[in-house]
Amino acid sequence: MQMNRLLVIVGCSLIAAAHAQSFSPRQQAEFLLKSFWDSPSLQAFVEVGEWIHTLLPPERAMREEDLDNPRRPPIPLFEAVKKRLAEGIIVRGPVSSRPESSGDTLPDPLAKNIKRAVLPSVRSSFFGSEEPFIVPLRPFTLADQFVSFADALSAFHHVTIRMKVLGPARLGPHGVSGVWDVGTAGITFAKPVRINGLAANGTATGADITSLRADFATNCGEPGLNTIGAKSITAGWRGAILAWIGKTPDGTASMSTRQLTGKDRYEKLVIDTIDVDRDSVPDFSIWSGLEQAVASTDTFWKAVFVNIAGKWELLAFAQEADCT
Known about the structure:
The chain has 6 helices and 13 strands. By secondary structure, the protein is an alpha+beta fold. It folds into 2 domains: 3-87, no CATH class; 108-319, no CATH class. The longest helix has 14 residues, at 25-38.
């Protein structure tokens, strides 16, 4: 695989350093490739696929036989990456659900509301210092973040994950979309892996995940093509409002809801406070609202704060896609 072509680095943290120090696109791609071999994961696969075009001369970056059947040429290094995932990997943890941000910058909808409500005082409670992987639900689903979600399941449960390419990249309204030449992938686990959840009434629930169908080329407005093979452990799973990979709840959580209103529906803020272990110390604070559209449709958003070692941490933020 001509690994001597790659820069020798240690750990994923140097990837950020490569960007910060303005390395060339080719050098950045080489950093990402080396990072994959050091610690393979689906997220690393996606990052390699996004940068792989920098390894080719511009005239080879795309070969379209016709508008309905675009084909990207196979690249030996990327073929090796796909083969490694097909053989099976166990993702090294931890995998975080924290939203991407710049310093202390909050997502816009949350930043507009953070001054309207105060998070309650807390001390260390249910999660202790362990950081769970959070998945906001209703109207969001597990499939909305299948890449990091699948990595987190493998890492937390130490279970082998395998990826099979099911379909090529496809032409969309803004060009070819996919992870280089991969449009759809099947993801399977060596054994069922569990995700915990809470139903709307606070009852503990969850599901055992066996597989995912991941579509990297879904266009805005198309039906969701990301699907998950899951077997619920209780009837309440269908109505779960929150899910996480981490410590398992025991019994029914204590829950309360309050609403802040204003001149219109965009100023409505719903805050759900959840005490998982019923020790009178909140473990979750879930904020939900509606963001007014600038050029298209309104978007529903949800932020999840978690009590980690007696401190509130923003561990998840989800927002409906705005099709423009």
